[in-house]
Amino acid sequence: MCHDVVFKALLSDFSADSKSEPNLVASTFEHIKNAKINLNTIDNLHVQCPPPWEEHQGAVYICIVMLVEYHVYQQLWYLIEGSAEVSDFPKEEAMSTEDSDVAAEKQRINAYRTSMLTSKDCTDSLLLVNLYKRYGSYIAVDHICVGVPDQECFGLLGQNGAGKTTTFKMLTGDVVVTSGNAYLKGYSVRTNIKQVQANMGYCPQFDAIIGQMTGRETLVMYARLRGVPEENIDYVVNSLIDILLLNPHADKLSEQYSGGNKRKLSTAMALVGDPPFIMLDEPSAGMDPKARRQMWNVLSQVRASGRTMVLTTHSMEECDALCTRIAIMVNGRFKCLGSPQHLKNKFGQGYTLIIQLGTLDDGSTAPNQPVIDFIAENFPGATVFDDHQGYIHFQVPDSGVTLAHVFTLMESIKENLNVQDYSVHQTTLEQVFLSFTRAQVQSKEDKSKSCMTKTCCCICIKAGLYK
Ligand SMILES: Nc1ncnc2c1ncn2[C@@H]1O[C@H](COP(=O)(O)OP(=O)(O)OP(=O)(O)O)[C@@H](O)[C@H]1O
Ligand SMILES: [Mg+2]
After folding, report:
1. Residue 387 belongs to domain with CATH number
2. Which tens digits make up the pLDDT trace of 323-369?
3. Which ligand 1 atom sits closest to the C-alpha of 138?
4. Is the Cβ atom of 169 under 6 angstroms away from ligand 1?
């Protein structure tokens, strides 16, 4: 019989008169001697003997930790599905509609010999070779190919659910690769995930911090894990706390951090130990503008010091400021690839012309129609993008229209059409992004989450969720 069951039965018998008993030890022995333990009493107490494996819980948990730590599940998976590394190519039609830069990069990567992929001398720090991930029947990442050279900051853009985090998770070994492979500094994520992780700093999208530790303690722990010499740890940790503006919060429990400060801590955790390759999944989400700009400075310096980065963000401004090359992902595929300026030149739709109308004598805004007519007449194909509160935004398609021509015409009508001010902008990265991401389809999972019943609300019907 289990000891604690006997003890509880004795205790229930004993508790009634224990207060009146002067000698507690003597009375306890007396009760043990006299106690009538019968199994019915024990049943009434609803006390169950713990299953035998509970006695070996510690050993079981250690085994589970070891299985996870040494990626045994992934290794078994790759052993069974090993051939998928080279099979399962994308469909012909997908390849035929591919952007020329994306296709050229795919061709370049596929031309690498295996010995080159695993070579330490390869000029690309990171190589994604037909990387593919399927969750059930849903394709999250669809045969992406790219090489990220040393000292590059590569931006991975795409709207929610495009497959950015899944790509990161395959590189960190969090999820198994369905087919294809990735190589970091020549190490394969399929066979050398430990070396891949040793060369990588990672800031996950959702903060992986231990709430019961302070920010400083967390960084010290990471510094030790990353092998920073003991005498340098204080200096390294204090520098990171300083540059990421975490000083006022460094000694607070991290569970008490605000969202933005948690992101700062996660970014610091990725940078600790100066890893050669850094992956940042939306590091600036929720940061205030000052902290965000400070983080940009830090990341620019980190890159200038010879590190390579891959960054995802929903801030086009951040991408413009940091990234040397960008890929926009839609439904798990790369839709375009190149420097921010290259993408603006290639996919930009001319200029954005913003006109501010003057006011009339009675205080009302000058009429907009004469201005709209003038622009339509002089810039064929120009469309009104937005028109409110005296500001008209035109999209002028770039069909040989020079900036000089735009300025000359605008100066000539300024007086007559009561134009108070105007500005001309090149197409922004945001407009390029929007032109691609309109094509994103909702995953099955997202669709089912969007609306619970077919009669829930007219908004869903209007939005086309039900046809
Ligand atoms: N464990 C999972 N099981 C099934 N589907 C998943 C799983 N994880 C992600 N997905 C699906 O894969 C797709 C890509 O998800 P992912 O998290 O990579 O998107 P993302 O580009 O990072 O989006 P966001 O910008 O919102 O972070 C989504 O449609 C998502 O629903
Ligand atoms: Mg994500």
Report:
1. 3.30.70.260
2. 999 999 999 999 999 999 888 888 876 788 899 998 888 888 888 89
3. 5
4. no
List the residue whose alpha carbon is closest to atom 5 of ligand 1: 135
Contact 218, 210 (CB under 8 A): yes
Residue pLDDT, tens place only, 266-314: 999 999 999 999 999 999 988 899 889 999 999 999 999 999 999 999 9
pTM of the predicted structure, to 2 decimals:
0.73
Atom from ligand 1 closest to the CA of residue 166: 18
Question: What type of residue is 333?
Answer: R
- C-beta of residue 246 within 8 angstroms of C-beta of residue 294: no
Measured in angstroms, how far is the CA atom of residue 166 from the centroid of ligand 1? 6
pLDDT score of 16 more than 80: no
Same domain, 165 and 276: yes
Q: Give the pair of three-digit tokens for residue 438.
A: 């309109």
φ, ψ (nearest 5 deg) of residue 37: -95, 115
Q: Which two three-digit tokens encode residue 55?
A: 């006695």
CB 220 within 8 A of CB 299: no
CA proximity to 86, closest of 120, 114, 127, 105:
114
Cα torsion 67, 70, 76, 81: sign: positive
What is the residue range of 8's domain? 3-49
